[in-house]
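New to this. Comment on this protein:
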Amino acid sequence: MRNEFPITKSGDTRQQILDTAKDIILGKGFAAAGLNEILSTAGVPKGSFYHYFKSKEQFGDALLADYFDDYLQMLEGMLKDDGSTNSSRLLKFFQFWLDSQSSDVTTDKCLVVKLSAEVTDLSEAMRSTLKNGTDRVVACLTNCVEQGIRTGEFPANLDAKTVTIEIYYMWIGATLLTKISRTRAALECAMNATKTRLGLD
Protein backbone atom coordinates (compact mmCIF):
# COMPACT_ATOMS: atom_id res chain seq x y z
CA MET A 1 0.00 0.00 0.00
CA ARG A 2 1.39 3.40 -0.99
CA ASN A 3 2.39 5.71 1.86
CA GLU A 4 0.33 8.88 1.41
CA PHE A 5 2.10 10.85 4.14
CA PRO A 6 4.33 13.69 2.97
CA ILE A 7 8.04 13.13 2.57
CA THR A 8 9.90 14.53 5.56
CA LYS A 9 12.88 16.86 5.39
CA SER A 10 15.38 14.01 5.38
CA GLY A 11 13.11 11.41 3.80
CA ASP A 12 13.91 8.75 6.41
CA THR A 13 11.74 6.76 8.79
CA ARG A 14 13.26 8.17 11.97
CA GLN A 15 12.54 11.72 10.84
CA GLN A 16 9.04 10.75 9.76
CA ILE A 17 8.33 9.47 13.28
CA LEU A 18 9.68 12.68 14.85
CA ASP A 19 7.77 14.99 12.51
CA THR A 20 4.50 13.15 13.06
CA ALA A 21 4.99 12.95 16.82
CA LYS A 22 5.68 16.66 17.19
CA ASP A 23 2.25 17.61 15.88
CA ILE A 24 0.49 15.02 18.06
CA ILE A 25 2.43 15.95 21.19
CA LEU A 26 1.78 19.66 20.65
CA GLY A 27 -1.89 18.82 20.87
CA LYS A 28 -1.93 16.21 23.63
CA GLY A 29 1.30 16.47 25.59
CA PHE A 30 4.08 13.92 25.93
CA ALA A 31 2.52 11.44 28.35
CA ALA A 32 -0.86 11.34 26.63
CA ALA A 33 0.59 10.72 23.17
CA GLY A 34 0.69 6.96 22.70
CA LEU A 35 3.26 5.26 20.53
CA ASN A 36 0.57 3.36 18.66
CA GLU A 37 -1.12 6.59 17.62
CA ILE A 38 2.15 8.18 16.56
CA LEU A 39 3.28 5.18 14.52
CA SER A 40 -0.12 4.59 12.98
CA THR A 41 -0.37 8.23 11.92
CA ALA A 42 3.17 8.12 10.52
CA GLY A 43 2.43 4.89 8.66
CA VAL A 44 5.37 3.17 10.34
CA PRO A 45 5.36 -0.35 11.86
CA LYS A 46 5.88 -0.54 15.63
CA GLY A 47 9.11 -2.47 15.31
CA SER A 48 10.68 0.46 13.52
CA PHE A 49 10.30 2.66 16.60
CA TYR A 50 12.58 0.52 18.72
CA HIS A 51 15.07 0.32 15.91
CA TYR A 52 15.61 4.07 16.24
CA PHE A 53 14.76 4.73 19.89
CA LYS A 54 15.49 2.52 22.89
CA SER A 55 12.69 4.04 24.97
CA LYS A 56 10.01 6.71 24.92
CA GLU A 57 12.32 8.91 27.00
CA GLN A 58 15.10 8.66 24.41
CA PHE A 59 12.53 9.38 21.73
CA GLY A 60 11.35 12.47 23.65
CA ASP A 61 14.92 13.68 23.96
CA ALA A 62 15.46 13.22 20.21
CA LEU A 63 12.19 15.04 19.50
CA LEU A 64 13.28 18.07 21.52
CA ALA A 65 16.75 18.12 19.93
CA ASP A 66 15.17 18.01 16.48
CA TYR A 67 12.70 20.76 17.41
CA PHE A 68 15.47 23.08 18.57
CA ASP A 69 17.58 22.40 15.47
CA ASP A 70 14.64 23.46 13.28
CA TYR A 71 13.79 26.41 15.53
CA LEU A 72 17.37 27.72 15.54
CA GLN A 73 17.56 27.42 11.77
CA MET A 74 14.39 29.49 11.48
CA LEU A 75 15.56 32.03 14.06
CA GLU A 76 18.99 32.47 12.49
CA GLY A 77 17.34 32.95 9.11
CA MET A 78 15.06 35.67 10.47
CA LEU A 79 17.90 37.49 12.25
CA LYS A 80 20.61 37.26 9.61
CA ASP A 81 21.82 40.51 8.06
CA ASP A 82 19.63 41.25 5.05
CA GLY A 83 20.34 44.96 4.85
CA SER A 84 17.61 45.90 7.32
CA THR A 85 18.26 47.07 10.88
CA ASN A 86 18.91 44.69 13.76
CA SER A 87 15.94 46.18 15.61
CA SER A 88 13.53 45.57 12.72
CA ARG A 89 14.67 41.95 12.35
CA LEU A 90 14.37 41.36 16.08
CA LEU A 91 10.88 42.86 16.24
CA LYS A 92 9.89 40.85 13.17
CA PHE A 93 10.82 37.68 15.06
CA PHE A 94 8.84 38.69 18.14
CA GLN A 95 5.86 39.62 15.96
CA PHE A 96 6.07 36.13 14.45
CA TRP A 97 6.13 34.73 18.00
CA LEU A 98 3.09 36.79 18.97
CA ASP A 99 1.09 35.79 15.89
CA SER A 100 1.97 32.10 15.96
CA GLN A 101 1.41 31.60 19.69
CA SER A 102 -1.93 33.41 19.69
CA SER A 103 -3.29 31.56 16.65
CA ASP A 104 -5.63 28.58 16.72
CA VAL A 105 -3.16 26.39 14.83
CA THR A 106 -1.87 23.75 17.27
CA THR A 107 1.16 22.82 15.15
CA ASP A 108 2.47 26.40 15.40
CA LYS A 109 2.68 26.27 19.18
CA CYS A 110 5.87 26.30 21.27
CA LEU A 111 7.09 22.85 22.29
CA VAL A 112 9.16 24.40 25.10
CA VAL A 113 6.05 25.82 26.77
CA LYS A 114 4.06 22.66 26.05
CA LEU A 115 6.54 20.21 27.59
CA SER A 116 8.68 22.06 30.15
CA ALA A 117 6.43 21.56 33.16
CA GLU A 118 5.53 18.03 32.09
CA VAL A 119 8.91 16.42 31.43
CA THR A 120 11.55 18.26 33.45
CA ASP A 121 10.74 16.33 36.63
CA LEU A 122 10.43 13.02 34.77
CA SER A 123 13.53 12.96 32.61
CA GLU A 124 16.94 14.49 33.27
CA ALA A 125 17.93 13.93 29.65
CA MET A 126 14.91 15.85 28.36
CA ARG A 127 15.40 18.60 30.96
CA SER A 128 19.01 18.97 29.84
CA THR A 129 18.02 19.15 26.18
CA LEU A 130 15.42 21.81 26.96
CA LYS A 131 18.04 23.81 28.88
CA ASN A 132 20.61 23.48 26.11
CA GLY A 133 18.08 24.42 23.46
CA THR A 134 16.78 27.49 25.25
CA ASP A 135 20.37 28.58 25.94
CA ARG A 136 21.03 28.39 22.18
CA VAL A 137 17.96 30.53 21.47
CA VAL A 138 19.05 33.13 24.03
CA ALA A 139 22.59 33.19 22.56
CA CYS A 140 21.22 33.82 19.07
CA LEU A 141 18.97 36.63 20.28
CA THR A 142 21.81 38.08 22.37
CA ASN A 143 24.01 38.28 19.29
CA CYS A 144 21.38 40.37 17.51
CA VAL A 145 21.02 42.68 20.52
CA GLU A 146 24.82 43.07 20.74
CA GLN A 147 24.93 44.10 17.10
CA GLY A 148 22.12 46.57 17.70
CA ILE A 149 24.02 48.13 20.60
CA ARG A 150 27.14 48.47 18.42
CA THR A 151 25.16 50.20 15.66
CA GLY A 152 23.45 52.55 18.11
CA GLU A 153 19.97 51.10 17.60
CA PHE A 154 19.72 50.11 21.28
CA PRO A 155 20.95 52.09 24.32
CA ALA A 156 24.71 51.81 24.81
CA ASN A 157 24.35 51.07 28.52
CA LEU A 158 22.39 47.85 27.95
CA ASP A 159 23.97 44.57 28.96
CA ALA A 160 23.02 42.47 25.92
CA LYS A 161 22.90 39.09 27.64
CA THR A 162 21.00 40.32 30.69
CA VAL A 163 18.36 42.18 28.71
CA THR A 164 17.94 39.28 26.28
CA ILE A 165 17.40 36.81 29.11
CA GLU A 166 14.84 39.15 30.69
CA ILE A 167 12.99 39.49 27.38
CA TYR A 168 13.07 35.75 26.61
CA TYR A 169 11.79 34.81 30.05
CA MET A 170 9.02 37.38 29.67
CA TRP A 171 7.93 35.92 26.31
CA ILE A 172 7.94 32.36 27.63
CA GLY A 173 5.75 33.47 30.54
CA ALA A 174 3.45 35.43 28.24
CA THR A 175 3.08 32.39 25.99
CA LEU A 176 2.03 30.28 28.96
CA LEU A 177 -0.51 32.91 30.04
CA THR A 178 -1.84 33.00 26.48
CA LYS A 179 -2.70 29.31 26.79
CA ILE A 180 -4.68 30.14 29.91
CA SER A 181 -6.48 33.28 28.72
CA ARG A 182 -6.80 32.38 25.02
CA THR A 183 -6.27 36.02 24.13
CA ARG A 184 -3.35 37.99 22.69
CA ALA A 185 -3.17 40.30 25.71
CA ALA A 186 -0.13 38.79 27.45
CA LEU A 187 1.90 38.58 24.24
CA GLU A 188 0.97 42.11 23.22
CA CYS A 189 2.09 43.25 26.67
CA ALA A 190 5.38 41.40 26.13
CA MET A 191 5.84 43.12 22.78
CA ASN A 192 5.29 46.57 24.29
CA ALA A 193 7.63 45.80 27.18
CA THR A 194 10.28 44.52 24.77
CA LYS A 195 10.20 47.76 22.81
CA THR A 196 10.48 49.75 26.03
CA ARG A 197 13.36 47.62 27.36
CA LEU A 198 15.27 48.08 24.09
CA GLY A 199 14.57 51.81 23.93
CA LEU A 200 12.41 51.51 20.83
CA ASP A 201 9.14 53.03 22.03
Notes: The chain has a mean pLDDT of 91.
